[in-house]
Every structure is written in C-alpha cells, then in structure tokens.
Design goal:
Layout: E1 2-6, H1 15-28, E2 33-37, H2 43-47, E3 75-77, E4 80-83, H3 89-95, H4 104-109, E5 117-121, H5 128-136, E6 139-144, H6 148-167, E7 176-179, H7 187-200, H8 213-221, H9 225-228, H10 233-249, H11 259-265, H12 276-286
Parallel strand pairs: 1-5, 1-6, 2-4, 2-5, 6-7
Antiparallel strand pairs: 3-4
Bound molecules: adenosine-5'-diphosphate and magnesium ion (MG).
C-alpha cells in the first residue's frame, strides 16, 4: 500500500484534476484506489458530481477518536472509492490546534484499509489537513504550471515537504514536480520548464500534462477525462503519468526508490506507441 499527497501552495495548478485522473487511471487498471478530498472547499467532491456527504461518509471521520479507515463509509465513483470533503472541516480546524493533531489521519489509515493506493487532494495552503496528509504519505506530487506564481508556489512547497520529512515523517520521499497545463508554444512556459528541469533535475517527472479542453471541461459533467475522451491529450498524458508512477506506487519494496531511479526506469514513451496503461484503459472503458 502506497500513499500519495498532491500538494502545492498555489491554487489552480491542477492538483484536483491530477488527483481525480491519476486515481481513476490507477483504479481502471486494477489497483484498489481511494481518493480523499482534504480540501475544505471540496472541489474534488463537487468535480466528481458528489453531493455534500453526511458526516459519517466524509473525511472528517478520520479525525474521530478510535475510528479507522475500515469503519468509514466510502462513495464509489467509477473505478475509485472517494472520501469526500465535509462542510464541517472549517469548524473542526479550530479544534485541531495541538502539535499532536497532525497524526490523526496516519493513525486512522493504519494498515491502509485494504487499498493498494490512497491519494490525497489538498488545499493550496498549509493547514492541519494538508499536514495530516503529508504525515500519512509515502510520496508527494507537486503539480506546477510553468509560470511565475505556480513556480514560486512549487518551490515553497518543496521546502515545506522537506521540513515535514525531517521533523514529522522520515519515510516521506523527495517530492516530485509534475508540469501541468503546459503549452509548449508559449515562451514563458519554455523558460520555466527549463528553469525547473535545471534546478530540480530528475525530480521533475518526464511526463508533462498539456493543456486540454477535455480536462478543462471535465468538472461540468462530474466525470474523469477517461469518460469524456479517451483519445484526448489529457487522457493520454494522465495515462502516461500513471504508467511512469506505477513502479513505485504499486508496491512496497520500491517505496524508497529515489526520484532519479524512477525517472530513469520509466521514461515517457513516444507518443505514437500506446503503452501499458493506455491499452488497459481502452480495454476497461470499452467493456
Ligand atoms: N491540463 C489542463 N488543461 C486545461 N485545463 C486544466 C488542466 N488542468 C486543470 N485544468 C483546469 O484548471 C482549473 C484549475 O485546476 P484544478 O485541478 O482545480 O487546480 P487546483 O486543484 O490546483 O486548484 C480547473 O478549471 C481545471 O479544469
Ligand atoms: Mg483543488
């Protein structure tokens, strides 16, 4: 069981979109996957077309004494299970003000509740909820659009993850940066992509998520990009991302794999060559 947090201190960089479509690709290819909406604004919950849940079926339960993931009711959406956010999170935050309150989610998840993968979507801020996600995680993915503010936000997030790794969660891997909403024709995008690749090297994943209208519109129908258009750039890019992350998301023994090793062992496949995930997705979505 592997746990992944999707974080950035900057909003609008594709965290929620990545949480939905990466989890969905994992689910469609047979990995039992739970996505947890830890953003009090609940965009993942609403983008998946879910109503505000009762307290019992929401992520607020992870902060209840003596409750484990097994005890909490999840909502099934397509290939994944979802633990939606809750309108009670904002008021709950006021009571989660002790140092020890960053360990609630790690305790509740325990042995992982039978999931292969758990993915956290987080808010664009350091809150007790995003810290709980990081403390419970093995890996961190930082989506970054190659523009000034998202790059600054990503660099701050890298520092935050470093501190959490040093002080609270020694098993947390080095964060990986995922370029999102990339428009290769834009000079600023080219400049910031180069800047990030030079500064962070193999920590920047080889797969990039390009701008894609199917991704921009997916929230309207409460669907994933794989439901909307399997041939779209968004579907192809998220399939490739999932494929490249599988070597260390799928099993425990590779959990500590350095990002360098991941990048070398999982280069982005050439666009004309359908890879493992894409073939599998086609099979699952057509049945
Ligand atoms: N690759 C993409 N191409 C086009 N639009 C995108 C892409 N990724 C995300 N979006 C859109 O950008 C907006 C912000 O994305 P979102 O995932 O909600 O960001 P965050 O969770 O980081 O705030 C949403 O309207 C989403 O549909
Ligand atoms: Mg979001």
């Amino acid at each position: 069981m592997q746990i992944l947090s999707i974080c950035s201190h900057k909003g609008g960089t594709g965290k929620t979109t990545t949480a939905i479509n990466l989890s969905s690709a994992l689910g469609l290819t047979g990995h039992k996957t739970l996505v947890i909406d830890m953003d009090p604004q609940g965009f993942l919950t609403s983008m998946l077309g879910l109503p505000q849940p009762q307290k019992e079926g929401s992520c607020i339960m992870l902060f209840e004494q003596g409750i484990t993931l097994h005890d909490i009711k999840k909502t099934k959406v397509g290939s994944i299970d979802v633990l939606p956010s809750s309108s009670m999170m904002t008021s709950k935050m006021r009571h989660l003000n002790k140092a020890i309150d960053v360990f609630w989610v790690k305790e509740a998840i325990g042995d992982g509740g039978g999931y292969d993968n758990i993915v956290f979507d987080t808010a664009a801020a350091i809150t007790v909820f995003s810290l709980n996600a990081l403390v419970a995680s093995d890996h961190v993915l930082i989506p970054v659009t190659p523009e000034y503010q998202p790059v600054m936000g990503a660099e701050q997030t890298v520092e935050t993850v470093k501190v959490v790794g040093q002080k609270l969660n020694p098993k947390l891997g080095h964060p990986k940066l995922l370029l999102t909403q990339v428009d290769a024709r834009r000079r600023t995008h080219q400049r910031y992509r180069e800047y990030l690749r030079q500064k962070y090297g193999k920590q920047v994943l080889p797969v990039e998520i390009r701008t894609c209208s199917s991704l921009a519109n997916s929230y309207k129908g409460g669907a994933t990009v794989f439901d909307i258009d399997l041939n779209s750039r968004g579907a192809q890019d998220y399939a490739r991302l999932t494929d490249s992350l599988l070597p260390y998301l799928a099993q425990n023994k590779t959990a500590t794999m350095a990002p360098e090793a991941v990048a070398q062992s999982a280069p982005a496949p050439p666009p004309e060559e359908p890879d493992y995930i894409i073939k599998n997705l086609a099979r699952h979505t057509s049945s």
